Amino acid sequence: MSVIKSPAMEDLKKSFESWSIVSYMALSDMKARYKRSVLGPLWITLGTAIGSVGLGLLWSELLKVDAKTFVPTLTAGLIIWQLVSGVITESCSLYGRQASIIRNMNLPLGIHPMQLLCRHLINFAHNIPVFILLALALGVPVNANTLLFIPGLLLVALNLCWICMVVSILGARFRDFEHIVSTVIPLLMFVSPVFYRPAYLPFSQNIIWANPLSYFIEIIRDPLMGVAPPMFVIQVNLLMLVVGWIGAVWLFNKKHNRIAFWI
User: What are the CA-CA distances from residue 248 to residues 56, 177, 193, 238 (Å)?
Assistant: First the structure.
């Protein structure tokens, strides 16, 4: 049986066609998390605002960088990092958390990674106003390059989707994988351009660019700061998109029928 006509590919096709179900499940999950809360999801926005301003003022002093430049840079980096790290970390236990749904409902398995990604994109939408307000207050330039934020976010979302699929399958098969990822992700944060731009570093920038997550941050943050992302950042994101989806589809096709037994 060819990969194109395999049950796994049919599953992915049905998943992409079920965006109404995906969005409903993501919004329901969001509402359940903040049930009976006064501010609800606005706690996400408030927490990001306080953390960004506080850390921005602190790190601008440590790095001897103008706060007007550094605070919006850090804010954008933190917002993007929350999206990227949140998807990867939660992917490890994704199928385990959805075990009851998988056992009792005839839904495509590909829906669950998409639901997780959709929920974190909603979180991202709650956080981005923090950056917009800081950008307006601190005079971050808005120009034609700013519009590149949209295709950059789309490219990162598509990359995160295949990463979520791969990590969720590995997490379902190997229960220790969740602990490995939760240990590695905080370390990757400090070799990612979250608290600083690569140009701020007193040592080789190759350390930053050896981390694939750095390319996700820069392709979104550069347009937000009014700068076009470097061509090599775009090329690496496109390369990861093609190679990643090929590998993810192959793995999903090979292990699709075993996921329900693993959980």
Answer: 37, 17, 26, 15
| Domain limits for position 86 | 7-262
In angstroms, the Cα distances linking 138 to 72, 92, 126, 198 are 8, 38, 20, 21
Q: Is the Cα torsion angle 171, 116, 123, 13 positive or negative in sign?
A: positive
Question: Which residue's entry shows tokens 């993007």?
Answer: 80
State the pTM of this model: 0.87
Residue 2 lies in a domain: no
* Alpha carbon distance 152, 154 (integer Å): 5
Q: How far apart are the first and last CA of the chain?
A: 26
- Identify whether 1 is part of a domain: no
Contact in structure between 126 and 44 (CB atoms under 8 Å)? yes
What per-residue string of b and e applies to 209-247 under the rule 16 or more CB within 10 Å gives b? bebbbbbbbbbbbbbbbbeebeeebbebbeebbeebbee
Closest Cα partner for 94 from 25, 194, 1, 192?
A: 25
Three-class secondary structure of residue 151 per DSSP? helix
**40 has pLDDT over 80:** no
Residue 85 lies inside a defined structural domain of this protein: yes
Contact criterion met (CB below 8 Å) for 72 and 140: yes
Place of tokens 């501010």: 39
Tokens coding 164: 């979520």
By mean pLDDT, which of 26-30, 146-150, 228-232, 258-262 is the weakest?
Answer: 26-30
Two tokens, residue 262: 């693993």
Structural domains counted in the chain: 1
